Amino acid sequence: NRYQLWGGCFEEEPSRVLRRLNDSLAVDTRLFREDIQGSRGWAAELHQSGHISVEDNKSIQEGLNMVEKDIEQEIIQHGRLNDSEEDIHSVVERRLFKYAGDAALRLHTARSRNDQSATDTRLWMLRNLPKLHSALKELITVLLNRASSEFEIITPGYTHLQRAQPIRWSHFLLSHAWGLRDDVIRLEEQKKRLSRCPLGSGAIAGCALTIDRTRLAGSLGFEELTPNSMFAVSSRDHLVEFFNWTSLCGLHLSRLAEDLIIYSSQEFGIVRLSDQFSTGSSLMPQKRNPDGLELIRGAAGLLLGDAVGFSCILKGLPSTYNKDLQSDKELLFRSYDRLLDCLKVAAGTIATMDVNSERALSALDPGMLATDLAHALVRRGVPFRRAHHLVGSALKRASTLGVDLRHLPYQEYHTICPEFGTEEELASVFSWETSVEQYTSLGGTALSAVKHQIEKLRAWLEEP
Ligand code: ARG
């Protein structure tokens, strides 16, 4: 009655230190439902294909129900399984013996932990990735709701973090929503490759007993089967895809977080985070720190690290199962939990923050209308490159006189170039509203173009 499932030809127990490195129960306990689900399907298939009796199948099915209840209870009570087995597959099989007796000894017929573990992980992902999907859509909805109610706010747009052009605040929010929407689509696209059942691949060669893999896969809810047993036990491509996806999604969240961190600094003051989504300092009573956003920004690095780390594990591995692959689950759970938390914190932060439209407005300066002045000249027939230069001269002149573009006397403009128009025409350029309203073409920051984006995104969100 050795602890391992596989101890038959061994004289001694593995060393303690090897066990510490080898045992994965602390991590893969999280797969217990999927492991039991897979075993239910496997036993049923063994029975339907004539390899185990109706009674044995019944004992196994009932036993698995009991094992599931036991494990649930133990996790509720202790937060973990107090068991000396090396992994969740061993725990389930060993505990089944308690309830199903000798029938339990037939469960692993023609199955390997190689196809079993691969199946469990895919089932877990199929069950849980939809939570990331909903959290992403929730975040997009929050951005969209704000964007729909904050049309009026005009704020500086930055490139190189230097004041660039006035934009609608909604346009900024939507810029993040669009990237996240692509993440949703990318997540959906992974499902097709994820939803392939590896069970029946055995350790490497396939299943020596005749079984109906299509029926088995269907009973577990998979859309397809893995088409080659060696590919099935080797491939972690769905995880590589997932990790790279989480890291891209992390990058999007990091950019959003960084923007808001900057906007919430006192120097900008465009955004004020709610109490719920900011933290204080143990020393400085006045502090309101954007820790949540900073952790999101940091998480992007960790997600990327896990994506790279996992690909490094695969690089150089020979075909089929090698124990290196065991860490797929540690990284999966870690990245999954991290990203899910980040999505929720981002949504909460954005839903509850205040936007200070006065501050946004006062951060705009007339220099940001330099491009508009150039465009005004272009509309009067001046070639753009020359217009750019002429406005540059006006900026230089204003700086010499110690005024901004708006307060540069009309006469100065007229001297530089008569195409600046009449005094009234020139004055009409100096309006934030007029400025943003020029950008009506698709994807621009004018009200109509912003509303169009909102309609598009809403329609997409409402698609079934
Ligand atoms: N705990 C192992 C894993 O998750 C199960 C597969 C073990 N297979 C083996 N041949 N040792 O990867």
UniProtKB/TrEMBL annotation:
InterPro entries linked: Arg_succ_lyase_C, Argininosuccinate_lyase, Fumarase/histidase_N, Fumarate_lyase_CS, Fumarate_lyase_fam, Fumarate_lyase_N, L-Aspartase-like
Domain of life: Eukaryota
A Pfam cross-reference name: ASL_C2
Gene3D superfamilies for the chain: Fumarase/aspartase (C-terminal domain), Fumarase/aspartase (Central domain), Fumarase/aspartase (N-terminal domain)
GO terms for MF: argininosuccinate lyase activity
GO CC annotation: cytosol
Domain Argininosuccinate lyase C-terminal: 368-437
Family, as annotated: Belongs to the lyase 1 family. Argininosuccinate lyase subfamily.
This protein's name: Argininosuccinate lyase
Organism lineage string: Eukaryota, Metazoa, Ecdysozoa, Arthropoda, Hexapoda
